[in-house]
Amino acid sequence: METKETILYEAHGNLYLNITNRCTAECVFCIKRYSDGVYGYNLRLSREPTLTEIIKELSGVELSKYKEVVFTGMGEPLVRLDDVLEITKWLAARGMPARLDTIGHAKLLYPERKVAQELADAGMKIISVSLNAHDEETYDRLCAPKSRNAYSRMLEFARDVSKAGIELRFTVVNLPAVDIPKCREIAKEYCADFKIRGYSGQV
Ligand code: SF4
Asked: Least packed by Cβ within 10 Å: which of 18, 19, 162, 195?
């Protein structure tokens, strides 16, 4: 594992952005519980990079080498919504597709804003929402969201994403507590792509 803190890292032909360690949940399967990062990159940040620092790092990269730039990392990118919007616009202006991986608590974080539409207007192409569970009770147990009604508000946000014309994806972690077929059904109902994430921590 590198000791240098990582803002940008590459894997699977994509460029990944790690802009915060803050989050609106405390998932039992979160990577931060068992590792300092992924693919040998240290994702623990002693401080968040500023917007200027992130753009500077991106400017030093040959973007055309990558399929997409993905907001992900060890934290919830939407806690920095305004910066996500600015970076997405910057990428879109350079013809670079952007994807957001999110726990989907946008409506809890920004009840007054139309977050999905703002992301669409900025040029976001794909939003991958962590569905994580087939019902609220399991969701609360696995994800310990910091606000009430997080599961239903996450599903509402997912609807907004599709309505705003952004490609929607749902993901779940392959855990015994998760009813994968039911989650797949939910994804179908929401016309979302469905992806099962692997888990390398302890069950
Ligand atoms: S939403 Fe993601 S970053 Fe936040 S606790 Fe869950 S797994 Fe970790």
From this structure: 195
Q: Residue 142: name the closest of 82, 87, 197 by CA.
A: 197
CA 54 – ligand 1 centroid, Å: 21
Phi-psi region of 136 (alpha: psi -120 to 50; beta: other; left: phi over 0): alpha
Cα(20) to centroid(ligand 1), Å: 11
Residue 32 CA: nearest ligand 1 atom is 8
Among residues 29, 51, 9, 39, the alpha carbon closest in space to that of 197 is found at 29
Mean pLDDT by 10-residue block, N- to C-terminus, for the chain (203 residues)?
86 97 97 92 96 97 97 97 98 98 98 98 98 98 97 98 98 97 98 92 65
- Domains defined for the chain, CATH in brackets: 8-197 (3.20.20.70)
- Which atom of ligand 1 is nearest to 26's Cα? 5
The predicted structure's pLDDT at residue 2: 67
pTM: 0.96
